[in-house]
Each structure stands twice: as structure tokens, then as C-alpha cells.
């Protein structure tokens, strides 16, 4: 039996009445959570051409994201949504489409073959459709969690946004297959923390670190390095805030930027402006690794807490800074010039505490390895109670921001705080981590770490496309597992990481030799990467390596900024004992489904308001 459908005019009239009510609710929901200048403070271009622009805001009270999607050149419709890694298959979608007579907006999903289906549970709700001088503006909302098996759970970490453009009218939504569309993806953190912005000191000054007039190469990926120099005699200051400067028109090309300070032992660093992988790059640029600022697409200004600032300048601090800009240019656009960079806000009135940056996770060493063809292999690094007891002040430290880091096979990263053998809280977690999207993220809640606490950092890797083991190291085809935590007050502890005891790893190689006909060279002259390369990766060898990493003693690096360990015995240390683990959070389902539409919303997008 067919349910009578209202005419487009009747639907538009009913819809117009509902819009007024929805907008009142929207303003109330966002009251106090958005800066006064805009109810949608976060913006990103979705596509390289800049024809799709997304703005959004978050209501934590309602556990809802409000989206505003601007479509500058609408043809027959658009798909927008989210998926695990940015694929259009198995995606959670909202679709605007036309059959030639009417226009429709509906919640949908795609299966593993890319076929689109209307969702029986309509969780994307359209609030407004309006023609503007810039194009079609769609305002809609979506709860964080819906308890719909076809929907994506919106979490704190990275979200892979996907889109597809419809060129021709369709007889039905089910006629869409994403494989035939012009599609793309954009990575972003949707759930920005709702924290107040501290007031800047009266004597705040700014300095812009930007590479002047760069001719962006006509290739998909470029990392551009530029050396900048602070004035001679620049005294000690505190950085209290920084923000991006993106050249107008290049918003879709500038993917992320970082400012690094060079090592203080070099009195000079050669000036350079060019690709970071250029053979002409001076060797000393490799010693510019101390992060001062990091920005990625979709992020706004970064503020330090009122009581802390990041020190730079003065004795023992290098005057040389390296700006690194990642250009993402999938259309291979040529001839585009750029002068993007980062603006640092600093004060001579030093705050109560120096902020510090500490490395957690795994030591950069080949003894930690991931077998090939793994979908989710986990490696874990520890900052042990013995190290925090020795190196942290009695009052503890306070972590307010975090930057997670792996190389190409990293898929998930999490750091957990444990105390007295029990996991207490998550420091930072990203279940959809991408090595192509790394930023310093302010935490929603400051995490206090006390002497005797343990910090456990775990990384999940996917090596399905690799034939050999992936070992730890500095190379891009090697792996890392790091959390750079930003905290105060600064201590002498700069690195708190671990790796499996090398002697126990050699016992693993000996065991492999006993149970396999293929010999693994365990002779002293063989390097660990060579040993891993000769392991036959059957189920036994995989599981034994996984088990080894789960019980073998560790070598701890409890290091000062001078790269020297704190005094004590750090080799063959037992793994920290954790007897109680945090439960996985249960998605919160919206209380009422009564207000959701039963099917697609009918609307008129021919002109004026929908």
C-alpha cells in the first residue's frame, strides 16, 4: 500500500513552518558553546576545487553535530557522510538527489560494493535548504551515536568525511553506485573541545613564520621546508597562542603545517626554502625537531592554559625555526603561489609555569616489529611507575594537549593513565587515526599525572599490503608509536618510552629456528631487521611474537632532555601490572525517535528558500 505523498508545494509550506521552530531550537542549543562571531565556528573545504564547503558546530548537551554544507555548483545532487578510512563503500551517508520532478534529502548507507540504500532509520535531519548568492546551503544535524548498525559513531578523534557528486537525475536512491561518481575525502576532528579561550596578556606580540611566495609543485604531495630566524639577542618569551595563516584561495591545498625549533648547539643553520626531501636541503635541518606549533585542516587557534606558556628565545634556545608545510594537490594544479604559515603570539611577561613536551610510547628501534599481512596488530609502549616516581614533582604534572604519531601503517592510537594497577582515564584516543592527519589537539579535560602513575600507549597497525615485517625506526616505511603530550610544569623528563628487551627477542629468533625448517640467522653479525626479514610468517611465528610483546621484560628509556637516562636500572624491567581495565564506552542512543522523519524529506531547491 502506498502512502499519499504531499505535493512539493505543500511539503515546502510545511517545511518552511518547521524551519522557524528548528532555528529557535538550534540557537538555544548552541548558546554559549559557539564564539559570538558565528554559530558555525569550524570550516573546511571538502574538495580541491573549493566547490564544497563544510561548516559545523557541536552541542555536547544534545550530543549532536550541526552541519552547514555549501554546494557552489549543484548539478543533480550530492552524497556526504563518514566512513572508517575514507572509502565510499560501507559509508554512512546523507544524500540530496532529484528524479527530475522533485528533490529529496535522506539518510542512506552504502554496502561493500558501493551500492546506496535508503536507511530505515533517518538520523540525519534537514533543518534548512536555502539558495544563497554563493550556492545551495544545507543545514542539517546528526547525533553522535544512533545505535543504527548502518551508521557511523562520531567519536573524539579523526573523522574521514566523504563526498560524491551526482551528475544526472535518478529514478531512485537505489540507482546510485558510488564507484561511478566523482568522489573525495577530507579528514577532520569534528568533536572539537568546548573550552573557553584564555585572555591574552596586554603585552602580547606576534611573529609570523611563513614561507614567502612558494610556487606549489604540480604534484599530489609536497612537504615544503623553510628556515626562519628570530632577531639576534631575542630574549626568553612564552608562546601563549598560535593560529594558521593560509593564503586566500589555497585553503584546499594547505593540508597541515608545523613549526620546529632547531637544536641549540648549532650557532647557525643555513637558510633554505624548498621541498623537504630535496637533495639540496642542508643536513642541519634534520636537527630542527623540537615542535613549537602544529596545525591541520579544520583546526582553529591553539591556546595555552592561563598559567603556562611554551618558552622560546633566550640563552640555551636556538634562534632558528623550521616551517614545514604539507601541500595536498590531488588535481596537480600548477602555477599556484603560496605564503602560508603560522602566527605565534608571545609575551615577555612569563607565566607561572613553563609548558613542556614529553614523548610517550615506543623507542625508535627495530626490536618492535609488525608481521606482514596483519589487519590489526597492536604494539604497546610504557612510561613506568618507576620512571614517573623518580622524575615527576610531588604535585604531579598536568597534560592539556596531545599529538599522536605513527608512520604509514598506523590505524589506531590510545594512551591510558593507570594508577595502583588500575586504568583510570584515557589521555587521548583516536580510533580512526590517519598518519596523513596529525595535529596537536587540546584535551577536553586536563589529565593530572602523579609520581608512581603509569602511562600506556598502544598503536594498532595494518600491514595487509606488505610482504616483509615492518620494523620500528625513523624511516617512513618503518614504524613509530608516539604520543607527544603537552603539559605543565615542565620537568627534566623529556622521553618516557620502552621497547622489548633485546635478549628476549633473540630467544624468539632461536625458538623460530627450532620449529621451522627455514633458518633465521641468529648470528651476531645479522641485524634485527635482517632477522625479521628471514622469519617465515606462519600462524605460529605470528602468535609467538604477539605473546612475546605481551609478557617479556622491557628496556625503559627514562630520559632527560640531554638524551641521558635518569640514574637507575632500566634494562630488563617487568611490564607494569594492570589488573583492572577501563570498559569501552557504550554509545548513547537518542532518547526519542518520534521527531525523526519516516523517510526522505521532500524539498524545493529551484530557488528561494526550501
TrEMBL record:
GO cellular component: chromaffin granule lumen; chromaffin granule membrane; extracellular space
GO aspect biological process, one term: octopamine biosynthetic process
Record keywords, A-Z: Catecholamine biosynthesis, Copper, Cytoplasmic vesicle, Disulfide bond, Glycoprotein, Membrane, Metal-binding, Monooxygenase, Oxidoreductase, Signal-anchor, Transmembrane, Transmembrane helix, Vitamin C
Pfam families on file: Cu2_monoox_C, Cu2_monooxygen, DOMON
Domain DOMON: 50-166
Primary enzyme class: oxidoreductase
Biochemical pathway: Catecholamine biosynthesis; (R)-noradrenaline biosynthesis; (R)-noradrenaline from dopamine: step 1/1
Database matches in InterPro entries: Cu2_ascorb_mOase-like_C (IPR014784), Cu2_ascorb_mOase_CS-1 (IPR020611), Cu2_ascorb_mOase_CS-2 (IPR014783), Cu2_ascorb_mOase_N (IPR000323), Cu2_ascorb_mOase_N_sf (IPR036939), Cu2_monoox_C (IPR024548), DBH-like (IPR000945), DOH_DOMON (IPR045266)
Cited SUPFAM superfamilies: PHM/PNGase F (SSF49742)
Cited PROSITE patterns: CU2_MONOOXYGENASE_1, CU2_MONOOXYGENASE_2, DOMON
Membrane topology designation: Single-pass type II membrane protein
Region (Disordered): 586-610
MF terms (GO), sorted A to Z: copper ion binding; dopamine beta-monooxygenase activity; L-ascorbic acid binding
Subcellular localization: Cytoplasmic vesicle, Secretory vesicle, Chromaffin granule lumen; Cytoplasmic vesicle, Secretory vesicle, Chromaffin granule membrane
Reactions it catalyzes: dopamine + 2 L-ascorbate + O2 = (R)-noradrenaline + 2 monodehydro-L-ascorbate radical + H2O
Highest taxon, organism lineage: Eukaryota
Gene3D superfamilies: 2.60.120.230, Copper type II, ascorbate-dependent monooxygenase, N-terminal domain (2.60.120.310)
Role: Catalyzes the hydroxylation of dopamine to noradrenaline (also known as norepinephrine), and is thus vital for regulation of these neurotransmitters.
Homology family: Belongs to the copper type II ascorbate-dependent monooxygenase family.
Subunit structure: Homotetramer; composed of two disulfide-linked dimers.
This protein's name: Dopamine beta-hydroxylase
Taxonomic lineage from the root: Eukaryota, Metazoa, Chordata, Craniata, Vertebrata
